[in-house]
Write a structure and sequence with these properties.
Number of domains of chain B: 2
CATH class of one domain in chain A: Alpha Beta
Number of helices of chain A: 20
Order of helices and strands of chain B: HHHEHEHEHEHHHHHHHHH
Number of helices of chain B: 15
Structural class of chain B: mainly alpha
Strand order of the largest sheet of chain A: 6-7-8-3-9-10
CATH topology of one domain in chain A: Rossmann fold
CATH architecture of one domain in chain A: 3-Layer(aba) Sandwich
Largest interface: A-B, 57 and 43 residues
Shape of chain B: elongated
Largest sheet of chain A: 6 strands, mixed
Number of strands of chain B: 4
Strand order of the largest sheet of chain B: 2-1-3-4
Largest sheet of chain B: 4 strands, mixed
Oligomer: heterodimer
Radius of gyration of chain B: 30 Å
Chain lengths: 600, 393
């Protein structure tokens, strides 16, 4: 079928015209559409795209776990369609949620995979020592896998995959849900494997900033390959189009909103102290009073966003109707914030010495902070840092063990229900009724919040218009794309016009365009005086917050504006740290997590 | 992180070596893993050992097909010494709790209130007819037929008591009752007609069906749910090894539960055991394979622990209870339902257990039923092997 050149013989993966769809016609979804790619051996190839792009399906196809509907697929010179079993026996594959046996210890998990991979007993001691050293798990061999932290689990999963070094290693989102420190460690391990053992690695990720760590990148979106090449090739044509804008007297998000209205501006996001702006080709930065411009290095995300926007305008011609709905979603937003910021900056959430114990385990240890009305307040931390526990206590879902907690002037220990009427909550999993239509979901939540008929109708009309859901009002929610589900979930949380909106990891998995639209809405709400409390694991999103706290092991490591937090991490080696650098620096400061724990 | 200092030993042994060799080691690894999981997660141990104890205690003591202390009303229209003698016979029997009613309407009211389950009515000419022709003496028996089974038992007991009284009376009078045919009944295999001796072995079959199926139904689905199977699939492991790795540990566990149940039957419920323990072990092993195979098949199809356990209970426990002849006689079921019972493996095992416990090694009964179980085991294990794929589709 494919002309096999001498070059092709040595390639780790060759895919040509791969199609894969799931389900029967009315609900048929095309997971992978006409994907062709080449993976060069001995380097890290990144498979990059947002959730739902088809990364996992493609990985499973390559691992021989799924059969393509059409197309040819050659892995390590083997036909993966005709002979999947041989492919499975020759490669290393780490699924997204690596199936560690949680009631087995670290060592027992390794033993099992050594048995399964057929590693001869005389080689085991050396290989185990090497893997344990590499992953830093040596002190924990007797610990049950279920008791490891998220990052350690991922590293153990990787070690199990590597018990017998494979020639090709497939890693499906190894860095998702892992704290930034473990993320860097995982990357270090991957680089080392390529350098020392000449392994070929195909790694998928939804973090766009990880693209730059790959030798080559395959950009996947909605099942299609949008582009292939080195990270530099992706961004080369953007040189001279990316600027950082700043105006000392203005809040960054107001400047951002202002810049977005400019016709030559393709994209504007908050980046550190600046607003990062992507301009039209050959355009000059617009003249705005008081704004200073400085050129910036283009990034992979800039290229991706540009590609998506261009695709959208292409689709616009093809699919007028769909586009209109998307357009209206953004157009409906008055992008100019009410420039009269809320005057009386009273504290709407007050937390003092808040503690929560589960048995002897202290999940949250005497933390204190306060949030002002109309503020966007971020809660950052790795898994297990105590974020979710704090969040649940703030929403009145969990009783604190000790300490004071007042939300909207109500003491949550005595009047949780009263406080709950004034807060909106959007959970990570969106908690929508998938079989109900968009309108039915809205009606349900409006009724649940006890709105009367008149107000209900008004709020539903508002939600459909505001969130660009009018065209989808009768679509059942389960069929909506992820970004629209997110919009609907937020609309449901806002039905009763709450004073405070709690958002738990609201942007995980949605594509960068939807993320931008989402933050635009959040900013607008904040300007209307709604207080926003948000958790996120995207470090760049921390920059959108007015103030934030970084949590670790139940304690607050740092608090303040993004600028303050970054300043705390400033060091001779890192004169200008970004939020992720700051996070890592704060978390790895030797005595930082333990010092302020007087209760122990 | 300090990852710089490490020795670099490239160990790229040829891939061909691992394809064939190491099958034993892989199987051993899987069995060891499963065993560790069983030991650390007490739920499967509870299923194997706690469940038979609880179920045997509940059913063994709670379910009985014997009727005792049946409340009955005795009515004599013309009480005299004869009727008093007959009533005395009822009084002495442990099967009845009789009370004497002054007249029939009172007795009928008791019946309506459900204070009594039957009425023994002696008409006014009872004594007269009894003296003339012993066989013609009329006795009216009225039985509450709502519970048909109970009604039949009650009726039979009353008749037996009546016949017993007649013959005792005749013997006392110095001549045998004038009956043309003497029925000498003798009950084999369960001479005391203790229903427990019959129920407990059957119960073992029902319980082991449930346990065997539940054990394996949960484990495979658990691997699907936790995503461990996806990682296992992309290793050189062979599907046969995967299935055997599941089957062997739970087979051992299931046999343990079986031994416990049999011990309880013999030493706690005092059911006699007349057959050979070796045949019991062999047939139990084959029966357990049918149950484990069914569970494995459910698990492979369901891929979800909750659904798998529901299916396991509905498709194994209920048929084993209803369609195995454990309580409900297969011969009296409609034809299509009888055909359905042929695929219920408990049906065959119950016959084998009844035989081994109460009759001994009756080869003509044991081996055909064993063959039927073998066929069912082969069917489910074969179906599991066909259904399981190293693929997520």
């Amino acid at each position: 079928m494919t002309p096999q050149s001498a070059d092709d013989q040595t390639l780790a993966i060759i895919a040509d015209g791969i199609h894969k769809s799931f389900g029967k016609p009315p609900r048929r979804t095309e997971a992978v559409v006409d994907v062709s790619l080449r993976v060069v051996p001995g380097q890290v190839t990144g498979l990059i795209g947002p959730d739902g792009a088809g990364k996992t399906t493609l990985m499973r196809l390559i691992a021989g776990l799924l059969t393509p509907d059409s197309g040819t697929l050659t892995v390590l010179g083997l036909d993966a369609v005709a002979d999947p079993l041989t492919v499975q026996a020759s490669i290393g594959y780490m699924p997204q949620h690596f199936g560690l046996y949680e009631d087995l210890t670290v060592q027992e998990n390794l033993n099992l995979y050594a048995d399964l991979q057929g590693l001869p007993p005389d080689q085991r001691a050396a290989r185990f020592a090497q893997l344990l050293h590499m992953t830093g798990l040596a002190p924990f061999t007797a610990r049950l896998a279920g008791r490891l932290s998220g990052g350690m689990k991922q590293k153990l999963g990787l070690a199990c995959t590597l018990v017998r070094p494979p020639r090709l290693l497939l890693l499906d989102e190894p860095t998702v849900g892992v704290d930034p420190v473990s993320r860097r460690e995982l990357w270090a391990i991957v680089y080392q494997l390529v350098a020392d053992e000449g392994m070929s690695v195909l790694l998928s990720t939804a973090y766009l900033d990880e693209a730059e760590r790959c030798k080559e990148v395959i950009l996947l979106h909605e099942g299609r390959v949008l582009g292939k090449g080195t990270p530099a090739e992706f961004t080369a044509h953007l040189t001279g189009r990316v600027y950082g804008a700043s105006r000392p007297a203005t809040i960054r998000r107001h400047l951002q909103a202002e810049l977005q209205k400019q016709s030559v501006v393709r994209d504007a996001i908050i980046d550190g102290d600046l607003v990062r702006v992507l301009l039209d080709e050959n355009a000059q930065p617009p003249e705005l009073p008081g704004v200073t411009w400085q050129p910036l290095q283009p990034r992979f995300e800039d290229a991706f966003v540009l590609q998506l926007r261009e695709r959208e305008s292409q689709q616009h011609r093809k699919n007028q109707e769909h586009q209109e709905s998307k357009e209206s979603a953004v157009a409906a937003l008055p992008t100019t914030p009410k420039n009269a910021p809320v005057k009386n900056r009273e504290d709407i959430i007050i937390v003092s010495d808040l503690t929560r114990r589960f048995g002897t385990f202290i999940a949250v240890d005497a933390i204190s902070f306060s949030v002002q009305r109309g503020e966007i307040f971020g809660l950052l931390g790795a898994n297990g840092a105590g974020k979710s526990t704090t969040f649940r206590m703030l929403c009145g879902l969990l009783l604190p063990s000790a300490g004071k907690l007042s939300v909207a002037g109500v003491d949550l220990r005595t009047a949780a229900a009263k406080a709950r009427a004034r807060i909106g909550y959007m959970s990570q999993k969106f908690a929508l009724y998938e079989v109900l239509s968009v309108r039915q979901n809205l009606i349900f939540f409006a009724k649940a919040y006890g709105l009367n008929r008149q107000r209900r109708a008004a709020r539903i009309d508002w939600a459909l218009a505001e969130f660009g859901l009018t065209n989808y009002s009768d679509t059942s929610c389960g069929l909506l794309p992820l970004g629209f589900k997110q919009r609907l979930a937020m609309a449901c949380a806002l039905m009763h016009e709450p004073d405070i909106l709690f958002l738990d990891e609201p942007t995980s998995g949605v594509d960068p365009i939807e993320r931008r639209a989402f933050w635009q809405r959040i900013n607008q709400l904040a300007d209307q005086g709604v207080t926003i409390m948000i958790t996120t694991h995207f470090m760049d999103e921390a920059e959108y917050c007015d103030r934030l706290v970084i949590m670790s092991q139940g304690d607050i490591l740092a608090a303040g504006s993004p600028k303050d937090v970054r300043a705390q991490a400033k060091s001779p080696e890192q004169p200008n740290p970004n939020m992720e650098d700051a996070f890592i620096a704060l978390i790895s400061t030797p005595n930082a997590p333990k010092a302020p724990r007087p209760s122990q | 992180m300090n990852t710089k200092a490490r020795n670099t030993t490239a160990q790229n042994t040829p891939d061909t070596a691992l394809a064939r060799g190491g099958a034993g080691r892989r199987l051993f690894g899987l069995i060891r893993k499963e065993t560790l999981q069983i030991l650390r997660d007490p739920s499967s141990i509870a299923i194997a050992f706690l469940m038979p104890v609880v179920l045997l205690l509940i059913f063994g003591y709670g379910v009985s097909l014997n009727a005792k202390h049946i409340p009955i009303a005795l009515v004599a229209d013309a009480p005299d010494s004869q009727t008093a003698a007959l009533f005395g016979a009822f009084d002495q029997s442990t099967y009845f709790s009789p009370k004497t009613a002054p007249n029939l309407p009172t007795a009928e009211r008791w019946m309506l209130n459900r204070t009594v389950d039957a009425i023994v009515h002696l008409p006014s000419d009872f004594s007269a007819k009894l003296s003339n022709t012993a066989n013609q003496a009329p006795v009216q028996i009225i039985v509450n037929g709502v519970d048909a089974n109970q009604a039949r038992l009650t009726q039979a007991y009353i008749q037996a008591a009546w016949q017993g009284w007649l013959s005792a009376r005749a013997t006392a009078a110095g001549h045998s009752a004038d009956q043309p045919v003497q029925v000498a009944s003798r009950i084999w295999f369960n001479p005391e007609l203790r229903s427990r001796d019959y129920l407990v072995p059957g119960l073992i079959a029902v319980i082991m069906t449930l346990i065997g199926a539940l054990l394996t139904a949960l484990v495979m689905a658990r691997e699907w749910e936790r995503g461990t199977l996806e990682a296992l699939m992309v290793t050189p492991v062979h599907l046969n090894e995967l299935l055997l790795g599941k089957l062997i540990p739970y087979f051992v566990l299931g046999m343990g539960g079986m031994a416990l149940s049999v011990s309880m039957a013999i030493w706690l419920f005092n059911v006699p055991f007349l057959g050979s323990p070796w045949i019991l072990i062999l047939t139990s092993a084959i029966f357990l394979l049918t149950a484990l195979g069914m569970g494995l098949f459910i698990s492979i199809v369901a891929k979800n622990q909750f659904v798998a356990s529901l299916i396991a209970i509905i498709t194994t426990f209920l048929p084993a209870f209803m369609l195995s002849g454990f309580i409900f006689d297969i011969g009296s079921m409609p034809g299509w339902l009888q055909n359905l019972t042929y695929i219920v493996s408990a049906r065959y095992f119950i016959v084998i257990l009844h035989t081994l416990f109460l009759a001994g090694d009756v080869n003509g009964v044991i081996w055909p039923n064993t063959l039927a179980m073998l066929a069912i085991a082969a069917f489910f294990l074969g179906a599991s092997r066909r259904k399981i794929r190293k693929s997520l589709e």
